Amino acid sequence: METVTSESNPLSTKDIILRYGLIGGGISILITSLLYVIDYSLLFGGFAYIGVATVIISGILAALHKKKANNGYITYGESVSTSMGPFAIGQAMATAFILLLYLVIDSSLIAKMKNIQLEKMDKLVSSGALKKEQYNI
């Protein structure tokens, strides 16, 4: 990997990937923790995608950092590798935390998730959006 020179300090591509991957993963873990503390049912809705979005944004910011450090130039291959690295690190961290949350911290969370999904399906059946034949448990 080549060294990216910046005005303040030289950073290699590996350092940029690691830095932004850890930042994105940490923020994703923080968001997941906050959603769990506020209300565990938020983990199973649309709010759960905020953590994934932060990891994607960290990858984009890593590529922009590399481009800025290279005086505004970055090849396609460098941009892909520099943006996918933080995404992979951040998602691995987030996945490990979610597994830890489901299996160690609150092992009843899987049963709670199942109950929430069953309640949502019951609402769909009662409203007519889901036929009884489709709702087979």
Quick rundown:
The chain is mostly helical and about 140 residues long. It contains four helices and two strands. It is about 70% helix and about 5% strand.
State the low-pLDDT regions, or none: none
On the 0 to 100 scale, the average pLDDT is 84
Strand/helix succession: EEHHHH
Distance from N terminus to C terminus (CA atoms, Å) equals 53 Å
Indicate the percent of residues in helices. Answer: over 70%
Q: Strand tally, please?
A: 2
Question: Strand portion, in percent?
Answer: under 5%
Described by strand count, sense and barrel closure, the largest sheet is:
2 strands, antiparallel
Helix vs. strand class: mainly alpha
Number of helices: 4
Strand order of the largest sheet: 1-2
Tell me what the structure shows:
This protein has 137 residues and is an all-alpha fold. It contains four helices and two strands. The longest helix is centred in the middle third of the chain and has 30 residues. The chain is elongated, with a radius of gyration of 20 Å. The mean pLDDT is 84.
Keyphrases for this structure?
single chain, 137 residues, mainly alpha, two-stranded antiparallel sheet, 4 helices, 2 strands, elongated
Write the layout of secondary structure elements.
Elements: E1 3-4, E2 11-12, H1 13-38, H2 49-69, H3 76-105, H4 109-127
Antiparallel strand pairs: 1-2
Helix pairs in contact: 1-2, 1-3, 2-3
